[in-house]
Design goal:
Elements (H helix, E strand, L loop, with lengths): L2 E5 L3 H12 L5 E6 L34 E5 L3 E5 L2 E4 L2 E4 L2 E4 L3 E3 L14 H10 L5 E5 L3 H12 L3 E5 L7 H4 L1 H7 L7 E3 L4 E5 L2 E4 L4 E3 L2 E4 L3 E3 L15 E3 L10 E3 L4 E5 L4 E3 L4 H15 L11 E6 L2 E7 L6 E6 L5 E6 L5 E7 L2 H12 L6 H4 L10
Parallel strand pairs: 1-2, 1-7, 2-3, 7-18, 9-10, 9-15, 10-11, 17-19
Antiparallel strand pairs: 4-5, 5-6, 8-16, 12-13, 13-14, 19-20, 21-22, 22-25, 23-24, 24-25
Bound molecules: flavin-adenine dinucleotide.
Flavin-adenine dinucleotide binds next to α1, β2, α6 and β21.
């Protein structure tokens, strides 16, 4: 293989470049990035950058030392075998990495609608979070909760509008979501509320009510950024379909990060995980696969969120669980563990209890079982359950 093209210069893209070089690949690498920035981490955008504690979050990497031709501001438009068509012309390849991530879903309407995906989005939004500003946030998922945290801290009048009956319902279910509702003190949290459109000056609800706002932020989820592949001869279904080696259906092609729907050997299902840990670690396997090595990507998925002064961490895949068991004080530090009918732990969520997360993740990785009766005692470590 002489020339690998990596499309998407986010974390997954740049980590794949590093992994290729780390594994001794000495051929040419071209990294194509639609944004004008060099690669950066996104989690700080809704935390330290939005809170004004940091201005950037660039990935600590040396593109010159990696000997990669980095093409910022260049967008891939289409793909045929061996050729990526870009806004700057065609680029031939004999190895391809698809790492185009995901993009926010927007709502109908002509009013100004902010999303939070890029560094530029974060700077634009930060400038608008000023004391007294009326901020309407649509969606009480991970991004909505973190934006609400920053807006409340900035002294804004915050309304959060959520279609489900609790925050975080889509991500972790309504039972867990209900426990986070108390964190929204001082925020006008509208649950079971559907938005019709984002209009000039605010948000029109389906029931006709108009919620006035100076700033509207839409945080209702993302979709894999694979539109550029629509006419390519490659399997797409909720992202780029890849096997447990992250190999796509097109020859000499792998996909990683938010855009890849990979087969999980551990959970016997296809997963597409829109979280940082996947973008960080899957590239090792993608690079190995591209170079002809036989490795499998089989992680216990992990993510975290910092909201309303709490560190929320999650590991596993809870749809595989049947019982939910709580530990700790719902008003303070607590965690939740999902078990199967025969007591195997498949997921853990920890609120300000990092030890539960770390131990739970290890036990899930080892395929361990837990004693449900001991589990309810928060003073007994998961390791001893
Ligand atoms: P991306 O980071 O989306 O990078 C893909 C890149 O490809 C982008 O720069 C994009 O512009 C580019 N691209 C797309 N299409 C094309 C094209 N056709 N041609 C060229 N380039 C293209 N995860 C956590 O676990 N914890 C958190 O606390 C957390 N916080 C987050 C906060 C925010 C505000 C956001 C947006 C995400 C957060 N995440 C968090 C998720 C995490 O950042 C993502 O999972 C991760 O960025 C995915 O990396 P990626 O490289 O796959 O995709």
């Amino acid at each position: 293989m002489d020339h690998v093209v990596v499309v998407g210069a986010g974390l997954a893209g740049v980590r794949t470049v590093e992994a290729l070089r780390g594994r001794g690949f000495g051929g040419r690498i071209t990294l194509i990035g639609q944004e004008r920035h060099r690669p950066y981490d996104r989690p700080p955008l809704s935390k330290s950058v939005l809170l004004g504690e940091a201005d950037t979050s660039f990935v600590d990497t040396d593109l010159a030392a990696l000997d990669v031709a980095f093409l910022p501001g260049v967008c891939a438009k289409a793909l045929r075998e061996g050729v990526v068509e870009t806004t700057e012309g065609e680029i031939g390849y004999d190895g391809l990495v698809i790492a185009t991530g995901s993009e926010p879903i927007r709502l109908p309407g002509d009013g100004p609608q902010h999303v939070l995906r890029t560094l530029d989005d974060a700077h634009e939004l930060r400038a608008m979070l000023v004391p007294g500003a009326r901020v309407a946030i649509i969606g009480a998922g991970w991004i909505g909760a973190e934006v609400a945290t920053a807006a409340r801290r900035a002294g804004c009048a915050v309304t959060v509008i959520e279609a489900a009956g609790t925050p975080l319902a889509t991500a972790v279910g309504t039972e867990i979501g209900a426990r986070t509702q108390r964190w929204y003190e001082g925020i006008d949290l509208r649950l079971n509320t559907m938005v019709r459109s984002v209009d000039e000056g605010g948000v029109r609800l389906v029931d006709g009510e108009f919620v006035e706002a100076h700033v509207v932020v839409t945080g209702i989820g993302v979709r894999p950024a694979v539109e550029w592949l629509a006419d390519a001869d490659i399997d797409l279904h909720n992202g780029v379909v890849v096997d447990e080696h992250l190999r796509a259906s097109l020859p000499h092609t792998v996909a990683v990060g938010d855009c890849a729907a990979w087969w999980s050997r551990r959970f016997h299902t296809r997963l597409r995980i829109e979280h940082w840990d996947t973008a960080l670690n899957a590239p090792e396997v993608a690079a190995a696969t591209l170079l002809g090595e036989d490795t499998v990507y089989d992680p216990v998925p992990y993510f975290w969120s910092e909201q309303f002064g709490h560190m929320v961490q999650y590991a596993g895949h809870h749809p595989a669980g049947e019982r939910l068991i709580y530990r700790g004080d719902p008003e303070g530090k607590w965690s939740a563990v999902w078990l199967t009918a025969d007591d195997a732990i498949v997921a853990v969520l920890a609120v300000d209890r990092p030890r539960d997360l770390v131990q739970g993740r290890r036990i899930i990785a080892a395929g361990g079982r837990l004693d449900a009766e001991r589990l309810v005692d928060p003073d007994v470590s998961l390791r001893d359950c």
